[in-house]
Design brief:
Elements: H1 2-14, H2 18-32, H3 36-40, E1 43-45, H4 59-62, E2 67-74, E3 77-82, E4 89-91, E5 97-99, E6 111-115, E7 118-119, E8 125-126, H5 132-139, E9 144-149, E10 168-171
Parallel strand pairs: 1-2, 1-6, 6-9, 9-10
Antiparallel strand pairs: 2-3, 4-5, 7-8
């Protein structure tokens, strides 16, 4: 079921025009700019876009007083490394750009903005199937978890025991 949903959404994403993508990104950034947890947080986990995900990295420049961090897979677990102006990105074995080094601020995160292929109405995330974020949130339960999806990506599936619900999600 999830595998089929993933394929359908990935296919649809390939057809999103650049202007629709920019509209969605702007919409998400505007929603985040009004979200109280985001506004109060000093330490925020964000992601570097891949595979037609929305690019919300402009938040880093828009909120210079906040400390942002990108995820990096280390020993099969997500670590969040602080973003700075000298960040050096390298392709991981999955083809995702990750910081090659940086301060690990994982335990300080107050908000994590999570990429998703789809979200259920009860805040369960459809990811790429590796379970990294579910494993991460099982250990780090404090950050407020915000998923982001394109407008047509609300889905329905039966959550598994290892699935962790996010706190909310926004549609672009």
């Amino acid at each position: 079921m999830k595998k089929v949903l993933r394929q359908q959404i990935i296919e649809k994403r390939l057809g999103i025009s650049q202007s629709d993508k920019i509209k969605a990104q702007t919409n998400i950034i505007n929603q985040l700019s009004e979200e109280e947890h985001f506004l109060k947080a000093d330490f925020i986990g964000i992601f570097y876009p891949t595979k037609n995900e929305m690019d919300i990295t402009s938040l880093i420049d828009k909120y210079p007083n906040k400390i942002f961090a990108y995820p990096k897979i280390v020993n099969e677990k997500i670590q969040f490394l602080q973003v700075d102006s000298h960040i050096d990105m390298k392709k991981s074995s999955f083809g995702v750009l990750e910081p090659s080094y940086g301060f690990d601020i994982t335990s300080k995160l107050e908000v994590v903005i999570v990429p998703a292929l789809g979200m259920t109405k009860d805040n369960y995330r459809l990811g790429y199937g590796k379970g990294y974020y579910d494993k991460f949130f099982k250990v780090y339960q404090n950050p407020y978890k915000i998923g982001i999806i394109y407008a047509h990506e609300e889905v329905s599936f039966e959550p598994q025991v290892y699935d962790i619900a996010l706190d909310t999600y926004f549609m672009g």
